[in-house]
Model the fold of this input.
Amino acid sequence: MSETPENTLQYRFDGPEDAPVLILGPSLGTTWHMWDRQIPDLTRTWRVLRFDLPGHGGAPAHPTDSVQALGDRLLATLDEIGVQRFGYAGCAFGGAIGADLALRHPQRVASLALIAASPRFGTADEFRQRGVIVRTNGLEPVSRTSPERWFTPGFAAAQPAITEWAVQMVRTTDPGCYIAACEALASFDIRADLGRIGVPTLVLVGSEDQVTGPAEARTLVAGIPDARLAVVPGASHLAPVEQPAAVTDLLVHHFSTAWTETHAAIAAPPLVPVIAPSSEVRGPVAEIAPLEAQAGPVGRPDPYESGLKVRREVLGDAHVDQALGNSDAFSGDFQDLITRYAWGEVWARPGLDRRMRSAVTLTALVSGGHLDELAFHTRAALRNGLTPDEIKEILLQAAVYCGVPAANSAFKVAQTVIREETTPRE
Done:
């Protein structure tokens, strides 16, 4: 076990001290114990390091809202204990961390296994909605539905002890860290970068996975130049728990045959995705040099792209896609205007956090009687971290200074939105 400063992760080692290091990364809501049944076989060859996400499994609750930041914490942990090069296998969220490390630090990752993973997990709106539900209702609704997301119905019925273990694992997670992890997954998208993953990669998926299933796995295999696909029959999202022997055998085979100790810094021909499985031993992998940054225009940068990013993060992809999709030659310039200046200039300023900006915006909309915009900015306020009770207090304050009739209409709109956004989905 480890002492855990804020910039590192809680971890444990198993296996011989002189063996090469293999890291196992957990899924959201789980702990390192999801890998317990892989440890006896893996530690015959490797020194296995398992880690917990912040606030999971009793780990200190130091939340972070990006996959890259968690990857940096893992590397800081490895630097602290003297591990430079390693193999990495991660499930779902853990897979996202592994893919990010392979993209940003290819010299550290010898070989990669992505289990129940995806280049983009659902949509940003879905994960931000889950964060709103947890912030309002706690983790109980999410914990109760976790077995149906993680296991096939037959397994859940036949293994009540494991099903209850799954519920308790989520229930005891720190809510703030869970919400931050949802935000990290909301912003994770490496679809355009898959071709730069230059390490031998096993993509493993349960045949019955309804969360990140075979379709997402095939997207990974098609995009990663040196990737192999393995589909585990009779397994859902947490395949290492549901089908431990099959997953262990696949991991042992992959890391035994695809482990490389050196990278060849040579020019390589264009890489062609390998979709079919292959049993051949992989040789050194050529590093792909990043494209040189092209000189941009001199002067102040156009705030449109940064504004669009902030607008999507605050209002959600669905709302922004609808607004942009409905624009035409008449309204398109207005959409450009608000994206550049409302979102790229004002909302992107560092002087206020997004919670405060939402509070100010709600008050201004009540004052002006802009009920349509109040509806989607109430959703934005929930995503930005305001609780229903805090929104109620804002509207009460507005009733005093903006007028009771305006606040009365605002309460009706906000109440409807809050019910929609905070009711747990069955």
Notes: The chain is about 50% helix and 10% strand. The two ends are 38 Å apart (CA to CA). The first helix runs from residue 39 to 42.
